[in-house]
Amino acid sequence: MGTWTLTGPKAETFAQTRNMPGTEHTFDLVYDVHWTAASAVDTFPADGNDQLFAVSGLPKVRDRVPAAFRNTAKYMKAYVCRSVQATPRAEGMYRWEVRCTFGTLQVTVADEQAEYVAVTRQSGVRQAQAWRLGPYNGPGTNGFPTNGSVTWPTGVSDIGGTKIDLNGNPPMYEVPQMTVTVEVLWDRTKVVSGNPQAEPPTSSWSTYIGKRNNAAFLGCDTGTLVYRGFSVSPAHEWYRIAHTFVWDEWYHLEQVTGPIPTGAPACTSGVTIAGLVVLQADKVVWFQKYQSTANFSNIVDSLQLAELTAPKPAAV
Questions:
Q1: Strand extents, DSSP E, the chain
Q2: How many Cβ atoms from other residues are within 10 Å of residue 175's Cβ?
Q3: Segment 237-256 mean pLDDT
Q4: Is residue 172 domain-shared with residue 290, that is, in the same domain?
Q5: How confident is residue 111, by pLDDT bands cut at 50, 70 and 90?
Q6: Spatial distance between the Cα atoms of 203 and 187, rounded to a whole number of angstroms
Q7: Main-chain phi, psi angles of 296, to 5 degrees
Q8: Structural domain ending residue among the three candidates 108, 128, 163
Q9: What sign does the CA torsion over 78, 79, 80, 82 have?
């Protein structure tokens, strides 16, 4: 039975590429592998190709970078072997050049410390019944309730503004909205308190769903942003996580009327149109279906938040 010999990695072949956070960074190590027959009649084994990739000391797919490299550059711990390619060498039988390519989606170095954060914004509208047009009677911007908060039903009063319904039939109003998506990365293999952190804290994030922001976040005023949820998709040992928020010009409020016992709006004489007196809703109040608020800064970690609030590079 022949023997396998591993030489390397060869320092002169080290190749490293660093990219923007969130795209794959690569690092190559190149080895020489040689099979030597035990005798003149010894033949190359039938499963020799499998034995080649199993040679002791040769990195395997999903292995970390060898310890010698991790110990000299701590950020190298993030690299994981993505591929192993064996190419026969022309200068001899049963000799291969084996290239092990390592990759990671994120590199953290003292002077390049950064987290991958990508924010996308998409404008839109929602259809809402508009019984009144502002400005309204509230203390907030344009007369809205402060931060869009309303205590239902004891804390409501008529919103004021200009009546625009006709005989208790309100027109539909297109309330400007914006969908904000924040994409981050999660290392499933990162060791925390002695164990891999594995799955992201989805049960914790779920508690934020349907809550509005209790402080300005992502440039959106307090109370205007609702957390709609998250998506998690695998990317090697990482997860790509997308958090979705929706901003609303009306603070996600709805205009509702005071009804009579039949459920129809309570109306009184209103505007005159072409000599015809038209009934209009007597009382209109705000209803806030997203009563709870939360600190959305807890959804992302401190480094991710820093990328959102102080992105690099600095302006020159």
A1: 3-7, 15-17, 25-36, 80-88, 95-104, 117-129, 132-133, 162-163, 172-187, 191-192, 195-196, 212-213, 225-235, 238-248, 253-257, 267-273, 276-281, 284-288, 293-294
A2: 18
A3: 95
A4: yes
A5: very low
A6: 17
A7: -70, -15
A8: 108
A9: positive
Beta bridge partners of 239: 186, 234
Position 205: which residue type? Answer: W
Inter-residue contact 233 to 184 (CB < 8 Å): no
Confidence grade of residue 33 (pLDDT, cut at 50, 70, 90): very high
- Say whether 182 sits in a helix, a strand or coil: strand
Residue 314 in domain: no
**How much is the CA Rg of the chain, to the nearest whole Å?**
32
Contact present, 140 and 186 (Cβ < 8 Å) = no
Judge whether 158 and 148 are in contact, CB under 8 Å.
no
Q: Is the peptide bond before 153 cis (omega within 30 degrees of 0)?
A: yes
Phi, psi of 269 (to 5 degrees): -60, 135
Q: If we measure between CA atoms, which residue out of 253, 252, 182 comes closest to residue 219?
A: 182
pTM comes to 0.83
Last residue of a domain, one of 57, 88, 108: 108
Quote the number of domains for the chain.
2
222 plus 99 within the same structural domain: no
- Regarding whether 173 and 81 lie in a shared domain, the answer is no
Which string of DSSP letters, residue by residue, matches 105-146? S----GGG----EEEEEEEEEEEEE-SEESS-SSSSGGGPPG
Does residue 313 fall inside a structural domain?
Answer: no
Query: Which pLDDT belongs to residue 72?
Result: 65
Q: What is the DSSP letter of 53?
A: H
Structural domain boundaries enclosing 171: 117-308
